Amino acid sequence: MATEVTLRRFDLSDVDAMMAWASDPEVAAFCRWAPFASTETEALLAHIRDTALSHQWYRAICLAGDARPVGSVSLEPTADPCRGELGYVVARAHWGRGVATAAVRAALAAVFGEVEGLARVEALVDVDNAASQRVAEKAGFRREGVLRRHYWHKGRVRDLVVYGFVSGDPLPPSHEDEVCKPLTRLGLVRPASHSVQRTRLGDRWSEKRQPGRRSARTR
Amino acid sequence: MEQQRREPAPETEVTLREFTEADAEALFAWASDPRVVLFQRREAYARVDEARRYILDHVLPHPWYRAICLGAVVVGSISVKPCGPAGEEGEGASRASLGYRVAHGHWGRGVATRAVRMAAAAAFAEWPWLARLEAVADVENPASQRVLEKAGFVREGVLRRYVVLKGRPRDMVMFSLVDSDRDERAKPKLLLQVKEPFELNKE
Fold first, then answer.
1. In a domain, A190, yes or no
2. Residue A46 CB partners (closer than 8 Å, separation 6+)
3. Which residue of A12, A116, A213, B184 has the smallest Cβ count within 10 Å?
4. B61 touching A, CB under 8 A?
5. Per the CB < 8 Å rule, is A212 touching B164?
6. For residue range B157-170, what is the model confidence (pLDDT) as tens digits?
7. Domain containing residue A163: CATH number
8. Is the pLDDT of residue A83 over 90?
9. What's the distance, CA A37 to chain centroid?
10. Nearest 5°: CA angle at B85, between B116 and B31?
11. Do B131 and A120 touch (CB under 8 A)?
């Protein structure tokens, strides 16, 4: 059964929770950023301010019934306005429980309605990162190929598997599909309602995008 | 692209050189042709002045943009653009992307294939940081896909809704030529074949 997660915007008060994964070298191993030292709270606060809060689409991953985030999922601009690149990270204590899969699935379900002009979401995963490849596949991405010698990361040039998800692709059932909707139909639970805040793939997107530079997380 | 039986251009005739403003009319010849710009982002040019502006604003400041010449005649263009800040680690640092256009009258003669091979060799020779040269071709542009294959690029897959062309997201076939492809080709081929079976270490 799918794990239940919610996605919400970050707040500065999330800094302690974020430090759990931001300071973990095992989490950072395949990521494009270097881990923070656990004492670098100020630096991580600045990172939240400059990146998570001002980013076009950057969400905290929360488990059901828990306000503290256990990871993040974000959409990065690319050279083309119709496509964004999804990044996702979960604290090591919550690996192996379907959290990242549920979060990525929720992101794919939400992001086309919230980012104007978006036609494609892609994920680029190191060929040696089998766990992250499984997340992408189970969340609904389609494996499209391997981009050879694509990314210079921590001293080596890496091959990356490219996954694509386009508007209209089928999504696997979520926790809501498997549990909440049947309960709603039986009248046991009120349907959830949420407002969708739509952003424009315009000024803020291109402001963040510097030629050849990633706006988020690289140090 | 129509299937045309044409004389292939002799390989020695195809050369690459830098553009000058004086090439505006030649560039206009293909940049105004809807058949050539069909799979490009921009619409066809209507005036030579647009081609002149393009040379001044885009071609001359470009990191690597060359005119494809058949003898003395400019018949197309080819460009290679680094994807990121060269020599620094991070996004785009080890790769560059290649694009090309040839006037319709010279299609089917191997001109683009020759130009791509020459541009690829030049890029790897000039940029020691280059590990990957990539190029995309629209899924509905098999002629361009063949050019890249014949030039030695490897087809990696179809990236769906990858780029916006003329306002619509298009599926693109991704091709690449990487440093290890070129190293492989440079190695002398093994001429001897082992006829008798031999035993490797039994571990």
1. no
2. none
3. B184
4. no
5. no
6. 999 999 999 989 99
7. 3.40.630.30
8. yes
9. 22
10. 40
11. no
- Check the CA dihedral B22-B25-B30-B32 and report its sign: positive
Residue of chain B whose Cα is closest to the Cα of A32: B90
Distance from CA of A144 to the nearest CA of B (A): 6
C-alpha B133/C-alpha B181 separation (Å) is 11
Contact list in A for residue B174 (CB cut-off 8 A) is 145, 147, 162
A209 and B CB contact within 8 Å: no
Q: What is the ipTM of this complex?
A: 0.85
Q: Which two tokens stand for residue B124?
A: 């790897």
Which residues span the domain enclosing A123?
A: 5-183
Question: Total domain count for chain A?
Answer: 1
As a whole number of angstroms, the distance between CA A122 and CA B42 comes to 25
The answer to whether position A136 is within a domain reads yes
Interface of A with B in 126-185 (CB under 8 A): 142, 144-155, 157, 162, 164, 166-167
Three-state secondary structure readout of A79-97: CCCCEEEEEEEECHHHCCC
Phi, psi values for residue A52, rounded to 5°: -60, -40
Structure tokens at B168: 């619509």
Structural tokens at position B49 = 């002045």
How is residue A54 written in tokens? 């001002």
The domain limits of chain B are 14-182
Q: Is residue A32 part of a domain?
A: yes
pLDDT greater than 70 at residue A204: no
Beta bridge partners of A210: A213
Has residue A219 been placed in a domain? no
Topology at the third CATH level for domain B14-182: Aminopeptidase (3.40.630)
> Exposed (0-12), middle (13-18) or buried (19+): which is A86, by Cβ within 10 Å?
buried
